[in-house]
Design brief:
The chain has about 675 residues and is mainly beta. It has 9 helices and 32 strands.
Amino acid sequence: MYFWGVKYSKLFLKIWMLGVMVFTPSFLYAQHDKDSVLLNRVFGYKRNYAHHVEGFDNNVYLKYMFVTDRRNPTLWLIPHMYTLADGPRAYVGESYCRISFHDLNDYTLKRQVSVGNIAHYRKALPTILELLTPNLYNVCLFKQHVLSPFNRSNKRYYRYRTTIIGNGTAVLAFKPKLSNTQLVSGQAYVNYETGQINMVELEGEYDMIDFKISVQQGESGLKALMPKHSELDAKFNFIGNRIRARFEAFYDCPVTLPDSLESVRDIALMDSLRPIPLEEEEAMIYQEYYKPEEPDTVPQDTIRHHKLNFWKDIIWDVVGDNLFNSLRADNGTASVRFSPILNPQYLSYSARRGLSYKMKIRSRYNFSPHRYLTFDPWIGYNFKSRQFYLTAPLRMNYNPKREGYAEIEVGNGNRITNSSVLETIPVDTTDYSDDQLDLFTDNHLMVRNNIEAFDWLTIMTSVTYHRRKAINAERMRKLGLPDVYRSFSPVLTLKITPWHKGPLFTIDYERGIEGVWKSNIKYERWELDGVWKIPMRSMSLLNVRVGGGLYTNKSTSYFVDFSNFRNNNVPGGWDDDWTGQFQLLDASWYNASSYYVRTNLSYETPLLMSTWLPLVGRYIETERVYLGALLLNRTRPYYEVGYGLTNRYFSAGIFASFLNTRIQEFGGKISIELFRKW
């Protein structure tokens, strides 16, 4: 019996395996075909059935609620969050807005009516607003972040499964192949015949915010690309602080308010605009905040007055707000914005340049919609060189459509070297190498005019005046050498773009003229620079920069000061100077050669190598690979290679430099990215 049992068992196993081989592939292929058909229709829906959203206005009702479960003093340091660091544990607010779409990722929001119990109607967790309007069919769901599962270029990052539920509707479920904050999971209810997304549920993480969002899209045409109703639940956890937020937005509201209404605080008006009633908890918060102090004499819609508290209302609101948040003021005609006094986004460190910090101010005065004045100075300090840096441009924009502006700029640049000074020092004198005789401060005044003559050609004409004073002026005078050099030079700059989204070529010509405002330097400078940012799949980007420059007509002592090849002692964040710069090049090299030829390449992508690392890989948002080459006078070819990454907390890079094929130096750079998008 045992023998026959084994025999028949083997026969049954063979029949079962044959069945699996015959029937299972047909099921898998059928499922795969069903997924592919629906995906192709979703990927092509925007191209086939809808047009770009441009010049489209909409009325939006927004309701939000914040609940603070746990908080500590570190909450004060977070931009736009210090309002929640003190006071009630629950905040409720509403806004009725006019939203104007230039594109789904480019829109302006005008708050016309706002009510709520947040002091002075300040912003809190402002990045959440981006989550309410996802651009489903674009490469990115939210501006330049989070790869959309409904775009063909991102298909390789997701797994999909289709389920037909009847009435021409299918459920498209998706989840990422790799755990990363640039990817989301969820499901979408899709019209199986057209690929139109009717509703979608997304779950993910964006800039330290865990979110779940449900979006109901419009019916057809342009509205099919835009949300009709959005609900968002979010959680923010940071250093022991735990805050929950709930947002709800209704688009395409029927009431259109006059354009003259802006930031009106009227609870009665909001009652008439609200498309849905308040929930019980929200109504209770309103009743407590808006209740009148004297019911017989004060109207019901009057906001309760608070007794002025010096430390809370003056010190806390004024000093605390401006210390950690941007200071803004806007009356329609004039506006000004100061970056926070404590601004970690502009704090960076590298072994070569040391620690640096920068602060910006932006201001604007409108004479008319097409003519306005801007004043955008920035101030920086480099702790290694112990030097303040200032650039203050005052610009009159007279033709924004053609980039027409006239500008006056004053500032001081990096300390610059004049190598010809040391050549004139008598041979029999004492060694002055430690006295920095070749170093000069550099203050400048520039007047320029810019105009786009054609779509492919921009012409900039300017006049530049430099006053360079020796660091060790007393020793220079003892040696009988000038301690101040002045230069006056007209400059012509041509910017050429051969085709739309193509490379940008810049041609610079500068000529120093003696005798104007005591100028004693004569020279000519030529530079050619080409920059091309080439977009690739899934937010990948190839940056290419090629250029060169030389000085001619060197009949007098002169300073090597190129426009496109210079040291930056006060860099910014990830996008400010990480492409097209040499991170390990000694500062003296920038002013040591009468010519240069350079090439810089970088490749940037969201999911490359480090994202596959366990635990930490899911937080790495973007990676870059660098390659740079440089040729100077009397030096061997200089090369630089590097790798960098960025996440929600910081950007970091490691670099190596070579002279010919011999390694010269290793180094690194780090800058703070924390709350940069806030």
